[in-house]
């Protein structure tokens, strides 16, 4: 029934914990295809994109982060390592996994890939609501649920 499963991964605890459930699910349901996805999030929001060059020149640090932490978390090298480790984890359990890397807004990238690969199911960890400023914003998981072309299984 769930032939193609998409599992977006990141460096969160929730993603690591969901991996065990994904492995069990794929084995129990005899899924034919497991696709791991990591998204390099655009570092600049659309409303500040025009100011990006000025910010870099003003403080001398890429993306305005003097410690480089945000840069490291979304660097292509970090993403490649994350995907390689995730693939190795599944292959150690006898599950072949494909890896995909995308750039952009995570929810849109996840749903676009789900559509491209004709995913039967997306399995995601969940961190709950995030608060931004004075109001609440949707989590990536909530956005995926709302935009997805297929069912979404959320692992708390």
Can you characterise this structure?
The structure is a single chain. The chain is α/β, with parallel strands linked by helices. It has one domain: 3-Layer(aba) Sandwich (Rossmann fold). Helix content is 42%, strand content 24%. It has six helices and seven strands; from the N terminus they run E-H-E-H-H-H-E-H-E-E-E-H-E. It has helices at residues 13-28, 52-59, 69-73, 76-92, 106-116, 140-147; strands at 4-8, 33-41, 97-104, 121-125, 130-132, 135-137, 152-155. Strands 3-2-1-4-7 form a five-stranded parallel beta sheet, with helices on both faces.
Please describe the topology of this protein.
Elements: E1 4-8, H1 13-28, E2 33-41, H2 52-59, H3 69-73, H4 76-92, E3 97-104, H5 106-116, E4 121-125, E5 130-132, E6 135-137, H6 140-147, E7 152-155
Parallel strand pairs: 1-2, 1-4, 2-3, 4-7
Antiparallel strand pairs: 5-6
Helix pairs in contact: 5-6
Summed up:
The chain is an alpha/beta fold. The chain has one domain (4-155): HUPs (Rossmann fold, 3-Layer(aba) Sandwich). Helices cover 42% and strands 24% of the residues.
Fill in the keyword field for this structure:
156 residues; alpha/beta; 5-stranded parallel beta sheet; two-stranded antiparallel ribbon; 6 helices; globular
